[in-house]
Amino acid sequence: MRISQGLRWLALAVFLILAAGIGLSWATDRSADSLKARWATAPSQFLEVQGMQVHLRDEGPKDDPEPILLIHGTSASLHTWDGWTAALTSQHRVIRMDLPGFGLTGPAPDNDYRIERYADFIVALMDKLQIRQAALAGNSLGGGIAWRTAVQHPERVSRLVLVDAIGYPLQSTSVPLGFRLAQIDWLKPVMRQLLPRRMIEGSVRNVYANPDKVSPELVDRYYELTLRAGNRESLTQRMKLRETDALSAGLIKTIGQPTLILWGAQDRLITEPSGQRFHQDIASSQYVVFEGLGHVPQEEDPERTVQAVKAFLN
């Protein structure tokens, strides 16, 4: 009798703990309009491209003959380039955007998140801004988009900056929890309603070499922009794709533009041997490795990493 009553109390306690956990993690979609006040302050603007209202920032001298486009990675946003932008806009026109499926831009109308589709999006954006040719810089997924654009539309890309870019089969030693969960089909209905802020914090800390640099505001940005309506579904669609295979090597070897390759030595998601392979496969490339930095070196230490970019552009 006492054992049975004790089990009932234990079951009730477990239920209450689970209910409290779900309550704290409950996170429904937020509209783009509700997020703009915090994440689309000046000089943000929205431009219609391919049926989307694309969130972008266009800064620096408009007469720059060679603008630079900054392309963020998976689950990031244009804000990841704040430090680089501040350092470059005195001499260069710098354009950065939230890619389809991420940030305030939100999901693509056709739900197509293949690399080649993103490359066409970059060119469509350049057309809208009346930019004939530009330098492209990208981190992670954004790096893959940058080099793929150079392959598909070589006449539109003057040079490349690849920052811990995708392109070869991954040899990850650690993958953020959020990325792993996004690949589990049966969790999709749950993940549309639940998003523990602590999980986002853990994922961001995972891609930094020094987790102490991950501030509450940084976690807020990743967390709130993930909640933008449609972004969680877009992430699951994107994570289903497997594009870093042997075929990429053949494409990468065709890149003829001058290329700067930057890598965080402590990147555990796309480990440093991938950077070496980019350098081997792109004939006209320079390679710089940053000790003490992880998968997003442009965000973790913008002052140190942008120096190599300045020298390359000038």
UniProtKB/TrEMBL annotation:
Transmembrane segments: none annotated. The keyword tRNA processing does not apply. Residues 67-302 form the AB hydrolase-1 domain. This is Alpha/beta hydrolase. Keywords: Hydrolase. Gene3D superfamilies: alpha/beta hydrolase (3.40.50.1820). The keyword Transcription regulation does not apply. One of its GO terms (molecular function) is hydrolase activity.
